[in-house]
């Protein structure tokens, strides 16, 4: 009898652990609608099915039920992975396998096509319940206008899942009070945000707002993803190595040396390398700035200047994405060297920087970058008692290689 009770208790404990594990990984009141597959040729219609309608449904369930929505950025990451791997056909098993990563109870997914025998747009939706490992559906909706699909689809899914209505219809109506053209523009903007082309995304978001005065969702959602990008890319520390800085200098004046007048005009080259530590940030979505300090060695006039101290800055425009940042803008570098034996050097380098910053993935903290900057140089050299010795100007090219470590990211 004791053995039977012991076995029974052990079995109950094991069952509780299993149930608890299921509910911990997939909480009961959670849902996620991920990107629909579609092969419709029209890009605006396809983008609306892939991203616009799922976004509409996620908001609908947030305002019309007691369900919690999975992280929207993570939803879009999973959607992007699935849609990239399913370019030719819809595969339900892939959706379910990838959807496990969202750790929700209900996973809503599907596909959109042109209805057979008509010009209507048809969506076929399935719901998978990770608690029971069973699926609901399919839920089919066919409409001639794409902006009519979302409301009917949301109601059908709510009925199927027997969701409790909430009292936030007014907020949701204001959020999604839009027409077909605005919905398509918004979906195109969302598509470009997910793919990382923020400039195009902003253009479509602004057009969505313009074509529907109450469609402030475009700005709200746009800002949401921009905040995500800012969180990843806004702040980073970079170790910058400059193996190549070279050019030519015109010696404008060589003043008195040891009481002799040796004024002359000449032509010579310079070169050197530097190691710098910089901090990079963004003042807005498309504007960046960079502050750096470092040491290096510069050779001019057949005279070497070891341990040159450099302070620099760069600012301009950046086209950010999850993986690759392209940036360009003017840069200034101040080089200085003080020596009781060699004299003192002070140079200002002005140029225009072009750079690429690459991260292996959206969540990677370390990345690489390279920069090239055509520049002009203005400088003076003084004696150790700060009497003017040389005054020169020149031009050259600076090439930088570096490692970046971003903090504040995911």
Largest sheet, in brief, is: 8 strands, antiparallel, barrel
Strand percentage, roughly?
Answer: 35-45%
> Ends: how far apart?
54 Å
CATH topology of the largest domain: Porin
- Count of folded domains: 2
Write down how many β-strands occur, each being a DSSP E stretch of 2 or more residues. Answer: 14
Number of helices, counting only DSSP H or I runs of 4 residues or more: 9
Poorly predicted spans? 17-24, 255-264
Helix content: 25-40%
The CATH class of the largest domain: Mainly Beta
Radius of gyration over alpha carbons?
31 Å
What is the CATH-assigned architecture of the largest domain? Beta Barrel
What shape does the CA trace take?
elongated
* Secondary structure category: alpha+beta
Mean pLDDT: 78
Order of helices and strands: HEEHEHHEEEHHHHHEEEEEEEE
Strand order of the largest sheet: 7-8-9-10-11-12-13-14
Topology:
Layout: H1 2-25, E1 30-33, E2 37-38, H2 43-64, E3 68-69, H3 72-85, H4 92-99, E4 106-114, E5 121-129, E6 134-143, H5 149-161, H6 169-175, H7 180-195, H8 198-211, H9 217-233, E7 236-254, E8 266-284, E9 287-300, E10 303-319, E11 324-339, E12 343-358, E13 366-382, E14 388-406
Parallel strand pairs: 1-3, 1-4, 2-4
Antiparallel strand pairs: 4-5, 5-6, 7-8, 7-14, 8-9, 9-10, 10-11, 11-12, 12-13, 13-14
């Amino acid at each position: 009898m004791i053995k039977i009770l012991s076995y029974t208790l052990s079995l109950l404990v094991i069952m509780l652990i299993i149930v608890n594990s299921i509910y911990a990984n997939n909480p009961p009141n959670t849902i996620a609608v991920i990107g629909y597959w579609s092969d419709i040729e029209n890009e605006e219609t396809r983008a609306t099915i892939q991203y616009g309608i799922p976004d509409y449904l996620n908001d609908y369930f947030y305002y019309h039920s007691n369900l919690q929505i999975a992280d929207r950025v993570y939803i879009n990451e999973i959607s992007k992975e699935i849609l990239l791997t399913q370019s030719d056909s819809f595969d339900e098993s892939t959706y379910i396998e990838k959807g496990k990563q969202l750790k929700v109870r209900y996973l809503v997914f599907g596909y959109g096509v042109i209805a057979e025998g008509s010009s209507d747009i048809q969506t076929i939706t399935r719901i998978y319940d990770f608690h029971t490992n069973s699926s609901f559906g399919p839920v089919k909706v066919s409409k001639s206008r794409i902006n009519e699909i979302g409301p009917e689809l949301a109601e059908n899914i709510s009925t199927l899942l027997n969701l409790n209505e909430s009292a936030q219809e007014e907020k949701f109506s204001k959020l999604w009070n839009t027409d077909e053209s605005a919905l398509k523009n918004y979906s195109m903007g969302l598509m470009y945000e997910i793919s990382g082309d923020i400039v195009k995304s902003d253009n479509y978001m602004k057009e969505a707002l313009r074509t529907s005065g109450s469609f402030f969702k475009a700005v709200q959602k746009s800002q949401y993803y921009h905040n995500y990008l800012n969180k990843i890319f806004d702040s980073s520390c970079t170790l910058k190595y400059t193996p190549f800085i070279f050019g030519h200098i015109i010696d404008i004046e060589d003043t008195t040396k040891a009481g002799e007048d040796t004024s002359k005009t000449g032509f010579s080259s310079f070169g050197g390398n530097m190691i710098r530590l910089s901090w990079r940030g963004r003042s807005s979505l498309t504007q960046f700035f960079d502050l750096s300090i470092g040491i290096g060695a510069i050779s001019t006039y057949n005279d070497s200047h070891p341990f040159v101290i450099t302070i620099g800055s760069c600012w301009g425009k950046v086209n950010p994405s999850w993986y690759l940042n392209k940036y360009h803008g003017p840069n200034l570098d101040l080089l200085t060297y003080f020596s009781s034996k060699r004299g003192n050097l002070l140079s200002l380098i002005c140029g225009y920087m072009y750079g690429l910053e690459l991260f292996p993935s959206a969540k990677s903290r370390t990345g690489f970058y390279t920069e090239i900057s055509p520049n002009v140089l203005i400088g003076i050299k003084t004696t150790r008692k700060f009497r003017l010795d040389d005054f020169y100007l020149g031009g050259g090219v600076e090439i930088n290689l570096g490692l970046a470590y971003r903090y504040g990211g995911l």
